[in-house]
Amino acid sequence: MGENTGIPWTDHTVSPWHGCSKIQEARECDNCYAAAMAPRNPGTLGVWGESGVRIKSKGFAKKLRLWNKQATEKNQRVKVFPSICDPFEDRPELFPWRQEMFNVIDECPMVDLLLLTKRPENIRKFWRPFTLLPPAKRADYFITFPDADHTSIHSKNPLPHRANVWLGTSAGTQETADRAIPELLKCRDLSPVLFVSAEPLLERVDYRLFMSALLWEDKIDWVIAGGESGPNARACDIGWIESIRDQCKTADVAFFMKQLGSKPIQDSVPFCTEHRKGEDPSEWPEYLRVQQSPHMDDHEYDCDCPDCILEYHMDECGRLGSRFLPLRWIGPRAR
User: Fold this and answer.
1) What are phi and psi of 125, to 5 degrees?
2) Torsion angles phi and psi, residue 40, rounded to 5
3) Measured over all CA atoms, what is the biggest interatomic distance in the chain, rounded to whole angstroms?
4) What are the φ/ψ torsions at residue 69 (nearest 5 degrees)?
5) 324 has which bridge partners?
6) What is the 3-class SS of 185-240, one letter each residue?
7) pTM score, whole prediction
8) Which of 25, 247, 318, 334 has the fewest CB within 10 Å, making it most exposed?
9) Are 120 and 183 in contact (CB under 8 A)?
């Protein structure tokens, strides 16, 4: 868990701007915690909604540069999540702010930005070039695909690959998953990690279609699951979360269990927890005590150890050489 956030799958939270609007067809947006919090301080958090006001963050660039400096000194990457905005919301005033966001991201190679959006169809549209690099160097960062299928999608508008940006979309219902995840999977050339936030999880969702590269050009790398919290929280069945864990286990996809939510149920019966958000792992069923993250540090590219393809193999360097990096094990591995 990060020192500056209560979100256990990131190290820090800071947003380039504050404010968003709900996706009308997405039930996951109905009880948005940030939208409910914003009226208390609209001058800082913005006025949410289509006709609202977005507030530019004063500390985004400064904090990213500070965390990058600290990460460089420690030689340890950090993850940062912009939690109170949608980085790919389509509003005219966000165009220059988004370019500034990418400029700072490009200055901070030791900071991984986890850009989570409910609008994955906008990612390619609003992905910005490397403006801070000399023109002669920019071509080094473009990905080319020999495969005809990939070329047909990306060759007309080649975009730079950012190794320090993870791209994600929210999908806690089947309808949203079927709409949003295919758009996310079109962005593999832009990012090393594509992830799904199944929070709030509102029903049983089958993600298997998006965990197979045989059916799509690529597959998702990571699923974060959790029930809804707050006074108006909707119920989350523990069986739904277990199903996601099993899907991830079978497909070799990293799984991160975040919380049971405020109204967990099991076999149609309330599952009581003392923690109001169901965030205490000691109160979870043992089989859900799994918190994995995709293993994406430099070692993955530099090590020539032949055993590094094995899950949870620890090589001679003492570095984890697997596809998954356990953030912390809080119980037995997924069975």
Assistant:
1) -60, -35
2) -70, -25
3) 63
4) -65, -45
5) 294
6) HCCCCCCCEEEEEECCCCCCCCCHHHCCCCCCCCCCCEEEEECCCCCCCCCEEHHH
7) 0.82
8) 318
9) yes
